[in-house]
């Protein structure tokens, strides 16, 4: 596996020019494109692609960048990049966050191996309402919810206050702040209106689960999925009137009190039975949405030991300071070793797929 040509694929932000050297990309704000979609903002504070570039170099590979600028010329150039592997960091295309699945499908058409989730998983995980229905089908506990489109309700359980209201198809805590938790019909209607207007998105309304915020980093695929040491986002030091949620201030805004009072660290104080329940729940959710190579399942643990899946994150943030790398470190992997494992998993999965796709392979398995 030495000396692979690895293309680090990412999308350009609005005021960013393509990187050809491993320099730190610009840190910039975000806006909407002409279709009213939010530009992807998860990496506006930290960019993991340079860390990945450096790790791949240390591993003896030949990494290079390829930036998508929303023009077909960048797609055509990608088809000719002659990479042995695509390290896929794409979260949007032309400013549209819903098109990350289209990029994965395009890579499938090109027939080039790439890291992370396929188009099905990206679609299922992004549509949080659909994901929760799939969880329910598989017996995976998730908060009761309702989906509010402009002027109609698509799906509703018999939910009760307090509730949390958020965009149904955003990630990175976009649209989640202290006002997302509501305790009255008036607050609920105002928040639904805010989500519709601000994000041009259906509003996901779900029961607020009071409990510990637990993250399960997982790598592998299907029956070979492995849960890394569990990570907890400690929200206990937030002020009494602040909701215990992983909002934008907690995750990204370093100047805020909420950011300074919270931290992520390997979980402590869990008995083995509870830990195993969390791990098995996380793997069930990972497999239900067809995640592969690496992913993160976000959960809430109630005082009575019940585990609720909040959401699944394919291709989670790989910064050395992020929860996935934190879990890998707790498992004994340094950053370069973590990247090497993700590369190895993607290549092995692709090799299995190619072997099974050969004529007569299905007959041989019968």
Describe, in plain words, how this protein is organized in 3D.
Residues 20-46 and 361-366 have low confidence and may be disordered. With 366 residues, the protein is an alpha+beta fold. It is built from 12 helices and 14 strands. The chain has 3 domains: 5-114, no CATH class; 144-207, Dna Ligase, domain 1; 212-355, ATP-grasp fold, B domain (D-amino Acid Aminotransferase, Chain A, domain 1). The protein is 34% helix and 21% strand. Helix 3 (100-110) runs antiparallel to helix 4 (119-126).
- Strand residue content: 15-25%
Radius of gyration from the alpha-carbon trace, in angstroms: 20 Å
Determine the fraction of residues in helical runs and give it as a percent range: 25-40%
General form = globular
Return the domain count: 3
Number of helices: 12
Tags for this model:
six-stranded antiparallel β-sheet, 366 residues, Dna Ligase, domain 1, alpha+beta
What is the fold's blueprint, element by element?
Blueprint: E1 5-11, H1 49-58, E2 62-68, H2 72-79, E3 85-88, H3 100-110, H4 119-126, H5 128-137, E4 145-149, E5 152-156, E6 163-167, E7 181-182, H6 185-199, E8 203-207, E9 212-221, E10 226-227, E11 231-234, H7 248-251, H8 257-261, E12 263-266, H9 272-288, E13 292-301, E14 307-314, H10 323-330, H11 335-357, H12 361-365
Parallel strand pairs: 1-2, 1-3
Antiparallel strand pairs: 4-5, 4-8, 6-7, 6-8, 9-10, 9-11, 9-13, 11-12, 13-14
Helix pairs in contact: 1-11, 3-4
Short description:
The chain has helices at residues 49-58, 72-79, 100-110, 119-126, 128-137, 185-199, 248-251, 257-261, 272-288, 323-330, 335-357, 361-365, and strands at residues 5-11, 62-68, 85-88, 145-149, 152-156, 163-167, 181-182, 203-207, 212-221, 226-227, 231-234, 263-266, 292-301, 307-314. It has 366 residues and is of the alpha+beta class. β9 (212-221) and β10 (226-227) form a beta hairpin.
